[in-house]
Write a structure and sequence with these properties.
Layout: E1 2-4, E2 7-9, E3 16-21, H1 31-40, E4 48-54, E5 65-68, E6 71-74, E7 77-83, H2 89-99, E8 103-106, H3 111-122, E9 127-130, H4 139-142, H5 150-165, E10 170-173, H6 176-184, E11 192-194, H7 211-218, E12 224-228, H8 237-249, E13 255-259, H9 265-271, E14 276-279, H10 283-292, E15 295-296, H11 307-314, H12 333-346
Parallel strand pairs: 3-4, 3-8, 4-5, 8-9, 9-10, 10-11, 12-13, 12-15, 13-14
Antiparallel strand pairs: 1-2, 6-7
Helix pairs in contact: 8-12
């Protein structure tokens, strides 16, 4: 602040420059990226300047500068591409030097994440990360055909966690449960802080129930069971198939609706022949579908938070512990089907 002829001249504060590293920046690609965009969409442009580094760039109009890095498909999960910063290391360092970040934000302990971490440590820049994806729980699905490798790969991932997150200055996790699990894997508790989540109650609320909409999908008035998420093996969709098979065996007069897509979709269509597959839905239609369904079925045990569980709950679709199997909610398929019967009979 300066004075000039009796007047105070307030100089604008210097913007905080943030270098943001994320392998994928495609909006709504998965729950983790949806969460990232909750942050990105709320960046105060008068206080922050962001520079994004990614392997897969946004496909929509994006307000910030993006540096795209060569990438390759991940062999054991062809839905994703990993950025390969080693192929453009000199260029990336030059861009980072010119930008001169005050903070480095890293979304994932990937090759790109470790590149950003090394750069930050070399230049004494604080690093923050958000624990979006529980990769260690994916190993049982990625290596299900070679089960003797599961424990070894889980140990390798836990070691990677320690090397990455213990060098960050701050790591946000979505729940106390996930913080405890990270501590068990050797992450220093003093680095971990809970980042509480929210959602748009204008999109997700029971008043969005639309019986005509859901009947236009099914063509009947039977009760509807909904699965809404990516159709990938790490969502434990084998359990979804088992629940479907049990409901068919017991001749429950219900509809199964599947909203989402993914690498396991062809097999899901084959295994759930009478289900209604919606593909990827935008948030507007998804909110309407939640509120209009009767029961939400979500068998995943690999969630860090489970955005869809919260969305379904506030939409007042029935979500029970026996059907939901997220990080702290697990049970058997037969119990799930019994509870479905009880719910449907009570209606």
């Amino acid at each position: 602040m300066e004075r000039l002829s009796g007047y105070e001249i307030i100089k604008p504060a210097k913007k905080i420059r943030v270098a943001f590293f994320s392998d994928i920046l495609v909006k709504d690609y998965d729950g983790a990226i949806k969460t990232m965009y909750q942050l990105i969409n709320r960046i105060p442009d008068d206080r922050f300047e962001y520079l994004f580094f990614c392997g897969v760039a946004p496909r929509h109009k994006f307000s910030y500068r993006v540096v795209r890095i060569p990438s390759a498909i991940i062999p054991f999960n062809i839905s994703y591409r990993a950025a390969l910063p080693g192929l453009a290391a000199k260029k990336l360092r030059r861009i980072l030097n010119d930008f001169n970040p005050d903070v480095v934000h890293i979304s994932t302990p990937s090759l790109l994440g470790f590149f950003g971490l090394r750069y930050a440590k070399e230049h004494q820049i604080p690093v923050l990360s958000i624990y979006h994806t529980h990769f260690i729980s994916y190993m049982r699905y990625y290596f299900k055909n070679v089960p003797f490798l599961i424990k070894a790969t889980e140990s390798l991932i836990a070691n990677l966690y320690r090397k990455f997150y213990n060098r960050c200055d701050l790591v946000y996790a979505p729940t106390d449960f996930m913080i405890k699990e990270l501590v068990e894997h050797g992450i220093s508790q003093k680095l971990l802080k809970q980042w509480h989540r929210g959602l748009d109650t204008g999109l997700f609320h029971p008043g969005r129930k639309d019986e005509a909409y859901i009947r236009s999908i099914t063509g009947n008035e039977k009760p509807c069971l909904l699965y809404a998420s990516r159709i990938v093996w790490e969502k434990n969709i084998e359990t979804l198939f088992d629940i479907y098979d049990e409901a068919e065996a017991q001749q429950l007069d219900v509809n199964f609706i599947v909203a989402g897509n993914g690498v396991a979709e062809p097999e899901a269509r084959e295994r759930m022949k009478n289900a209604f597959f919606m593909g990827h839905l935008d948030q507007e239609n998804l909110g309407k579908l939640y509120a209009s369904a009767d029961i939400f079925v979500f068998p995943s045990i690999s969630e860090t938070f489970g955005n869809v569980v919260v969305e379904a709950t506030v939409s007042r679709v029935t979500v029970t512990e026996s059907i939901v199997a997220s990080s702290s909610m697990r049970s058997s398929n037969s119990k799930a089907v019994t509870d479905m019967e009880m719910h449907l009979e009570s209606d």
